[in-house]
Amino acid sequence: MDQADLDDLVIGGRRLSSRFFLGTGHFPSPAVLREALDASGAEVITFAVRRVNLDAAGDDSMLQHVEDRGLVYLPNTSGARTADEAVRIARLAREAGLGRWVKIEISADPRTLLPDALETLKATERLVKEGFVALPYTSDDPIVCRRLEEAGASAVMPGGAPIGTGLGILNPYAIGLIAEQARVPVIVDAGIGSAADVAQAMELGAAGVLVNTPVAKSRDPAAMARAMRLALEAGRLSGIAGRIPKKKYASASSDPAGSLFGPPGGAAVLGKAGW
Fold this sequence. Notes:
With 275 residues, this protein is α/β, with parallel strands linked by helices. The protein has helices at residues 3-7, 30-40, 83-95, 117-129, 142-150, 172-181, 195-203, 213-216, 221-241; strands at 9-11, 14-16, 20-23, 44-48, 72-76, 101-104, 133-138, 157-158, 187-189, 208-211.
């Protein structure tokens, strides 16, 4: 594995040097959003299409504050309840000049906002055929993620926990299994609450993370963004290095036979001077 493989992420033919995707909602001001972007190093930002003025996307009150940064826009279909609605939203975003990347987000439950796997799969199949770079937000079900990959998704985005809860990764086993079997990048999306959750996601084999609320609603968004950026790097390096196996009992880091007094019940190991 060369250094480019370690450092860069490729999605839809686009090589990214950052594995940090940042959502743009909930920030107290555009200035704070810009500070968090600087601290995160993110190259991809996501935003709900419904919150953008599609008649003048270039002059939108949010996008105009980041248009000078050469970012990859990842408009999302938040608010869609069916595949038909998600497809229409994606088309509107592309026609407004927001590009062909789309985060497919479909939920039929306003309380949990958990993704509708069936409708998400339908939307992914249709949008891929229309030339979109589809990144579906989905549940942490390895089979669903495999089906989305087979449908042509450029990446899969399983949630660690329900959106905005900050509960962290509730099922590490599932996320690890998804990352192990995937042939496309796995971006852990939703539920992350702290830098520790980011590091865990990367150690489990994720290719990146997408966060919004835990940065935007922290006491210091720029500091939290920087902490998560460092955690992402540390977690990825740790995952590549490989953790030791977990054991039930202790395992000494030095050889007991070489200890000063020898093993319990054995002869002491002393020098000629007897000390």
